[in-house]
Amino acid sequence: MLAADVGGTYARLGLVNLADVGFRVGFHRRYECAAFPSLAAVLRQFRREAADAGEVDVPATCVVAIAGVLQGDALLNGNLAWPVSLVATQREAGIDDLHLINDFEALAWALPHLPPAQFQRLGDADGLPLPVLLLGPGTGLGAALLLAQDGRLVVQPSEAGQAALAAGTPLELDIVRLLQAQSGHVASERVLSGPGLVTLYRSLCALRDVPPRWHAPAALVAAADGGQDPLAAEAVALLCGWLGSFAGDLALVFRARSVCLAGGLTGHLLQHLRQGAFMRRFLDKGVLSDTLRRVPVNALEHGDLGLVGAAAWLAAQPRG
């Protein structure tokens, strides 16, 4: 099959043999979404490159793990480089059998197929008991739940990133007030994402009456890592703590027995997530703090997870 993982910034595509244990990804490529006029153009480019590389039988079945919600024929998402129509994409890409699924739904399907070494433990507890809450910051903020139902694995996708952002400290409340004054509803991904890190930093600059020096997530993280800007370091620490609080809230809402962090930003922030603010806020839930202390929390590098998950989703669909 042809698997694709399409976010707001990058599209990863690869060929996957469904007979392989663990759904090993073969020929693969990564593209910048903004360099293409449509999803169909990305799919066509990959199929051309695969054919040029000697992949004679480029499959006509494709599963695209993509940020957003499919409503009828249209994908609802504000972070993509272009609008997406299922029918138009299938026609323009020349694909016989095309499926669009939520990107974090695919990531959750990948979890049972990953080696233990791929999980980076953040808390004291260990393991991956079900239900597993998967969430993570990237261009947006995704979340999904992997659970057992009637003796089989199922995934419940969500749009938790669009839920209202809850402040847990006086500083966070000041930031929420500032963002509400700018745009009304403040979704959680407005702060807990790559662009959200920049929003946090600019908010701190506004509150401290300091001109901003950094305008991209990578530059901000580099400045924090290099000790170049105390406000950059404060913004990174603030995001990690706020993300921990959000993760703890969702773990309680879903009664998750384990939590995994993925998303494009997670790998870049791993050393900061280990520094304590994330887990401290994750556990700061009053009478249920001891319950959450027993919940394993792991981080995952994004990599090919979406491609593996797209293949796992297809393999789990009933035949006939």
Q: What is the makeup of the main sheet?
A: 6 strands, mixed
Distance between the termini: 18 Å
- Number-wise, the strands total 13
Order of helices and strands: EEEHEEEHEHEEEEHHHHEHHHEH
- CATH class value of the largest domain: Alpha Beta
Number of helices: 11
Radius of gyration: 20 Å
- Percent of residues in helices: 25-40%
Write down the overall mean pLDDT.
93
* Major sheet: arrangement of strands: 8-13-12-9-10-11
Pick out the low-confidence regions: none
Given helix and strand content, the structural type is alpha/beta
Proportion of β residues?
15-25%
CATH topology of the largest domain: Hexokinase, domain 1
Question: What is the number of domains?
Answer: 2
Query: Any idea what the CATH architecture of the largest domain is?
Result: 3-Layer(aba) Sandwich
Silhouette: globular
